């Protein structure tokens, strides 16, 4: 899957900061040294009262196979079993996963419910701020597809959605941006940037 997964109204029972357009792309050797393994991922629960002690183990269990970077947001009024419970997964950094989960939860919560809050996050095991970050899906594609290309190549990502694309050949960067942009669920994406190029 090449895009972030947005799941709204989910019953859970059943740094991108390191990148900026100004920083420019890094070569694959740098990326390989900084990216995290696809597994294992680490689930962190916040100390929010929105998840009672009785539901904490349930939430951790529900997130054990969710791909990084991911966040869960709920309204404390409705809880993790309520209609506002939202998971945003497979993003390129935790901040954008948090924003997506909060937006989905906010759209789903009842008018009289308390504001949403992030109650859990999924990051790569050993996560450190400031390292190059890709979603688990894009990290896997980098290892399995990108690195085997023996000509000019580029990998682009959409920070706000988790989409990504690979381009090859003399216009690799342009192709990567186009591949990333066309994968937007709601039409072409405008925030794709090239983060790895060779």
Characterise the protein shown here:
There is one protein chain. By secondary structure, the protein is of the alpha+beta class. The protein has a domain at 5-14 and 38-124. 26% of the residues lie in helices and 20% in strands. It contains 5 helices and 8 strands. The chain has helices at 28-34, 53-62, 94-108, 136-144, 172-182, and strands at residues 5-7, 41-45, 70-74, 86-89, 117-124, 153-157, 164-168, 193-197. The strands form 2 sheets. Strands 1-4-3-5-2 form a 5-stranded antiparallel sheet. A hairpin with a 6-residue loop joins β6 (153-157) and β7 (164-168). The protein is elongated, with a radius of gyration of 17 Å. The model is unreliable at 1-22 (pLDDT under 50).
On the 0 to 100 scale, the average pLDDT is: 83
Number of helices: 5
Distance between the termini: 23 Å
What structural class is derived from the secondary structure elements?
alpha+beta
Give the % helix. Answer: 25-40%
Number of DSSP strand runs:
8
What overall geometry do the principal axes of the alpha carbons give?
A: elongated
* Main sheet strand line-up: 1-4-3-5-2
| Spatial extent as radius of gyration | 17 Å
The secondary-structure element order is: EHEHEEHEHEEHE
Low-confidence stretches: 1-22
* Oligomeric status: single chain
User: What fraction of the residues are assigned to beta strands by DSSP?
Assistant: 15-25%
């Amino acid at each position: 899957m090449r895009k972030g997964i947005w799941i709204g109204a989910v019953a859970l029972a059943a740094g991108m900061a390191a990148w900026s357009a100004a920083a420019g792309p890094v070569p694959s050797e740098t990326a390989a040294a900084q990216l995290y393994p696809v597994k294992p991922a680490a689930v962190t629960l916040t100390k929010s009262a929105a998840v009672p002690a009785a539901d904490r183990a349930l939430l951790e269990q529900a997130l054990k196979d969710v791909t990084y970077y991911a966040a869960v947001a709920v309204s404390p009024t409705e809880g993790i079993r309520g209609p506002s419970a939202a998971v945003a997964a497979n993003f390129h950094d935790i901040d954008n996963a948090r924003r997506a989960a909060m937006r989905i939860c906010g759209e789903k919560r009842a008018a009289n419910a308390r504001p949403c809050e992030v109650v859990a996050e999924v990051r790569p095991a050993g996560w450190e701020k400031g390292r190059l970050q890709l979603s688990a899906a894009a990290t896997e594609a980098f290892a399995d597809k990108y690195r085997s290309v023996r000509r000019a190549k580029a990998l682009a990502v959409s920070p706000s959605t988790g989409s990504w694309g690979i381009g090859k050949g003399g216009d690799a960067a342009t192709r990567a941006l186009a591949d990333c942009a066309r994968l937007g669920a709601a039409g072409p994406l405008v925030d794709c940037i090239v983060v790895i190029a060779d």
